[in-house]
């Protein structure tokens, strides 16, 4: 069997002075050519996981392998250098661009910092990428505030693609865009994926975008992956109560196909007060005493579908009987 392009095992990332575990013992892999979605409520650790995979944030434990070579356990500068083929499209693209710099200067600087010294080569790469993302070279003279949200996304992608990545992490790639612009931007991601042989990790709140774009989806809750499955399986037969609630709460999921679900109760607890046992138990309608005593590990449901819930077997059969 082939090996994943990127694989993390037992990944822990601690944040802030208190050393809270924003990513807590995560196993995740990405196959070449795949689009992997990461979903979960605000604060569940999606960006921290993305930044750790990227090497921008140092892991406290665990291992990351790229092309089957270990790229973790080294100081941040070397970690990032070893992972140059992984690039990140920031959650807030506008903030990632310097407001006082013309777009052309920012694009040149990105390439210069990454080691492309020859300005003709930079110019050629930039023009090639602008063309690929459907922008005219006239944008090079503009400042960020003179561009639309859709144009900013295109610039963000052109900038990253000029670095010739293999893996692109897209953090909330459609946040703040109108629906029609979203559709264009998503089509652009698909086109670029085919044209440049990319694999994507797509972090998003928007389940309809994830369903449309992703081959496989991982669901995070308070720093842990609670379910991971091929996209179709996750949306049609979710096994974790959190995933079910999330799908139940999502406005644009097809009601015909939806399994029995409740919507989410309240907000997640803070990372400072994570419940013992299963972290979801304070919001779970199916919690029992055992759920406060045991931490559920990911178990295989079938094929590439895994879930971390002590009661997934009971709940799956409960659903089958209820829906007939
Ligand atoms: N540098 C930091 N210092 C303290 N806490 C942090 C730091 N970075 C992240 N956190 C905390 O870690 C948790 C995970 O944050 P993260 O940004 O990864 O979540 P997220 O899933 O990306 O959320 P969102 O959907 O809002 O972008 C949050 O509770 C956040 O407050
Ligand atoms: S382990 Fe228990 S509390 Fe956690 S999701 Fe499953 S049923 Fe709910
Ligand atoms: Mg985030």
TrEMBL record:
GO terms for molecular function: ATP binding. The keyword Nucleotide-binding applies. Keywords: ATP-binding, Cell inner membrane, Cell membrane, Membrane, Nucleotide-binding, Transport. SUPFAM superfamilies: P-loop containing nucleoside triphosphate hydrolases (SSF52540). Residues 6-247 form the ABC transporter domain. Coiled coil: none annotated. Residues 251-272 are annotated as: Disordered. The keyword Iron-sulfur does not apply. It comes from the Bacteria. Belongs to the ABC transporter superfamily. This is Oligopeptide/dipeptide ABC transporter ATP-binding protein. It comes from Caballeronia udeis.
């Amino acid at each position: 069997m082939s090996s994943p392009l990127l694989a993390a095992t037992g990944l822990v990332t601690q944040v802030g002075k208190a050393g809270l575990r924003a990513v807590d013992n995560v196993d995740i892999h990405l196959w070449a050519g795949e689009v992997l979605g990461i979903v979960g409520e605000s604060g569940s650790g999606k960006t921290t996981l993305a930044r750790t995979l990227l090497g921008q944030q140092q892991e406290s434990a665990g291992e990351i392998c790229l092309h089957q070579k270990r790229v973790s356990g080294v100081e941040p500068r070397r970690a990032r250098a070893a992972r140059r083929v992984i690039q990140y499209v920031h959650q807030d693209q506008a903030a990632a661009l310097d407001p006082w710099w013309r777009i052309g200067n920012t694009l040149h600087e990105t390439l210069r910092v990454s080691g492309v010294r020859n300005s003709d080569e930079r110019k050629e790469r930039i023009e090639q990428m602008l063309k690929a993302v459907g922008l005219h070279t006239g944008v090079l003279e503009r400042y960020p505030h003179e561009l639309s949200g859709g144009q900013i996304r295109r610039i963000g992608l052109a900038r990253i693609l000029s670095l010739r990545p293999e893996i692109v992490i897209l953090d909330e790639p459609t946040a703040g865009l109108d629906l029609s612009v979203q559709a264009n931007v998503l089509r652009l991601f698909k086109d670029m994926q085919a044209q440049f042989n990319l694999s994507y990790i797509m972090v998003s709140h928007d389940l309809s975008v994830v369903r449309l774009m992703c081959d496989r989806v991982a669901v995070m809750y308070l720093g842990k992956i609670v379910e991971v499955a091929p996209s179709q399986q996750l949306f049609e037969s979710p096994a974790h109560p959190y995933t079910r609630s999330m799908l139940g709460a999502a406005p644009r999921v097809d009601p015909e196909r939806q399994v029995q679900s409740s919507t989410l109760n309240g907000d997640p607890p803070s990372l400072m007060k994570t419940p013992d046992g299963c972290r979801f138990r304070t919001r779970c309608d199916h919690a029992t005493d055992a759920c406060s005593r045991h931490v559920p590990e990911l178990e295989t449901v079938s094929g590439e579908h895994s879930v971390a819930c002590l009661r997934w077997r009971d709940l799956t059969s409960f659903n089958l009987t209820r829906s007939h």
